[in-house]
Amino acid sequence: MSSTLQIKRWLFTTNHKDVGILYLVTSLYFFIIGGTLALLFRIQLSVPENDFLDAAKFNQAITNHGLIMVFWFISPLAFAFANYFVPIQIGAKDMAFPRLNALSYWLLLFGGLLVIAGFFMPGGAADFGWTAYAPLNTETYTPNFGANLTAFGLLMLIASVTVGTVNFLVTIFQLRAKGYKMLGLPMFVWGIFFTVLMMLWAFPSLQAGLILLAADRILGATIFEAPKGAILWDHLFWFFGHPEVYIVLFPGLALALDMISVFSRRPLLGRKVIIAAFGAAAALSFGVYAHHMFMTGINLQYLKFHMFTTELISVPFGVITILAILSMIGGAIKLTTPMLFALGSIAVFIIGGFSGVFNSNPVLDIANRGSYWVVAHFHYVMVGAALFALFGGLYYWFPKMTGRMYNETLGKIHFIVSFIGFNLLYFPMFFLIDMPRRIYTYPEWTGWGPLNFIATVGGFIFGLSHLIMFANLLYSMKHGPRVDKNPWGAWSYEWVIESPPPEYNFEGIPVVQGNRLMVLMADGAKPAAHAHNSHEGEHLSPWPLLISLGPFLFLLGLGMWIAQAKFALPLMVAGAIISAYAVYGWFRDDFYERFKLEEPPEYKERWPFESIHRVKLGMYFFLFGDAVFFAGLIGAYIFVRLEAPTTLPGLVTHNILLGLIGALLMLWSAVFMYAAARGAKLGDRTLTLAGLALSIVLGIAYLVVTGLDWLGTFSAGFTLADPAIATSAVTALSHALHLAAGLLVAVYLLLKVWVRGFTGHVPDTIDSLAVYWGFLAAVTAAIFGVTYIF
Amino acid sequence: MFHYPFNPAELSETARIWWDLFGFYLTVAIILGVVVYAGLVLIPWIYSRRRQAVDEIQPGVIPGERGRMAYLAVIVILIAASFIAIFVESYLAVNKLAATLEEKYNVDIEELQAGEADGVLVVEVIGFQWGWTFRYPNGVETDILYLPAGRPVIFKVTSEDVFHAFSIPDLRVKVDAIPGQVNVTWTVPEKPGTYRVQCYELCGVGHAEMITKAIVLPPEVFDFWYESQSEKLESEGGEQ
User: Is there a smaller number of Cβ atoms within 10 Å at the N or the C end of chain A?
Assistant: First the structure.
């Protein structure tokens, strides 16, 4: 391939393996940034009363270290492997929605770049800690513009995550090789499965919090500055924040189990019990978050309940750990580099888990909360357990991805050095239980100097040890000895095919018979569409890149505009134009059905969603997460109304009649959308066109009526300074934007049915849109019921 | 953690409750940890020397199920039992934290909210960017916390601006200082001396400097200080 084609391939690719490699490179890039920030503040803390960094720089360093490592390094590294290997491991040729897959990558990258761009803004990057406690996170106390960019960057990340989770769920449910039962899937697929389920439910809560925060910071609302605003942020943040820990942990832990099984040549002991334990931990993770709020003075019974669940969650993790260790009994264990990393991951996870049980108790939290004990604890879990396992995975899959072997001796040296460095870095922090987190310096008389010095030395050993890995892998990529398809004697699907895997993974139809993974070389095995879907061909799409670049430029411009910097307006205009053009381009491609990539459903195992079209299934999953988003917003309104008795009910602030008319319009709009879907199913073009048109008209009417009602509210003198008005306005605005996006798709479908009739996926898309419309109608009812009546 | 020249549990009533519970957790963690780490180290060490025979992983074959239900059930029950032991102990400790004040010192929090109870000192703690104000019942405001030894102290903690966390780590006192609400906590300091008071939640660039002293005085010295402060305040009030 020529170099222009290469550039085009990497920018426009939608192939899951290419996207996986983009994720991998990006996550390692952010690892270097986050790691450098960590080394900078470890230098500052190495001795008491140091002045290497001042307080402002230190706070920016710790904040962005946390954000980048959690959101742009560990999870994306896990999803690099997930992108590359989940489709292969389940026997698919690509993800269910390849273009959306590329979209989630580009959104992630540009979101991260927005956060980093904060460093170049006046006032610097965000500096309120990655937990961004209210009201420090508001405009009043943190007026710097980097903080706005961080909020924008996180919102782009959430968009990326939402698209990605839906894609993975549909892929795992509907693209397994024929005969591949869910329970037979590798643990890594199970780990990713539970991870995306948790992501789908957890991230919308953060999204709700960030949108409310944006209203505070940009529109002049005072939701988080009002009394109890701090507690509201705590609830919204930690409902997301605690599952996030397991989101980071699960892929790595599951991967460690796979590696332990392969290198001890023994199947896992009690596989089903382990899978159940993962499921139990994922479910419980949503009911433990208040242990982050033990000292906030909220209801003691609520805290006791969360103490109970927090301690209960140690049971599934205990089961997973013990069974992993006992699985090895009787095997012929090979202590290769990936195996060492897997065992190292379990070893540090035990310390991380035990120290976590200490934190489950409100009494022990009197010392632990906000101290270096907690820092040690969560680094043992998130860095130790997750990172060691994922780096093990990098070694494990390196021969598969490159077709060459790395240097085993250097790999083992990397493990030993990084393991020692890691423990030198974090173990002393358990003894610093009296030292507060996030202080940029400390007086000498505290006696914290020596332990901090050891930690800094450990930090440098740990950080620099990864250079061994980079050197090893970069050299071996070109010069390592060639390997055959299965150097480890592993069992799963990726080891059945060539190294590196061919563009569409399987040169035939993957089929599972009994417990055997096979690839059938039948005639017509290659779906016809694939013939011209090469790296130069149709699977390239520029729209995922452009649709992410547009908002990036726009939001960067917006941040600069608020900061009154030059070139802000041109950037915003360019961003808006690119966004609009990219959306148009995406629709145009769909209109002419340029972009097709689908495996025939009869080759696929689709239990338990056999008869649901993938677009509709994706819609269901999306709405499953979106419901949490609206629940967060409406919940915030209820919280504000309950906690601040001075706020006025909607009966006073709104025109109830207009609200009722709006709700009815929306309801009828949904009814007509269902009629359109019915028409599409029956092949009745007139019914569909009429249904779509009426639905669009009523939808627009709803927006107008609601807009009039809000104009009335504002002209009556109510402002966003009232937190009840602000939360309900943000809810209504979010709902309106959802509807506007839906209207865009409805107009597109109307045109397509008008011009081209029922071709391609049109009937299923209309069907999915009807589900979406039903959801919006339900949200309208909830908004009317809560924010108008209550 | 171990830099105390004496038993840190003797510094205050709350410290005693904390260290008792911490000791229990640590004992359980060490016992379980020794067992688990022994397995994690010994099993790979023993079985990595074995090269022959066992190979139940075959390329392209989904590994079979292993483990009898009874065997797995025993493991799960053992882990669940350790959980229950820990839960019972921590539940008791949480209740003890609230009950000690009432039972040992006959202080009723509800009564206290209504008026001033005998023998109890109520200090209002106000956090701000970046420092602390301590307000005593007689109206005196200080930036150093003076406390009597051997007498229950109630802290009513709030904040003027952002989220802080008030703590006297050696005495095991900590509660969040949140604007718009008052959080209550307590302790009984037992040894006269000087202790560190510090903020434990990131609150802006001055977070590290939000540090002051708590001076625990013998009760009669504290009373003398308190009376003299009251008089001083009155005479100042008179002058105005």
Answer: N
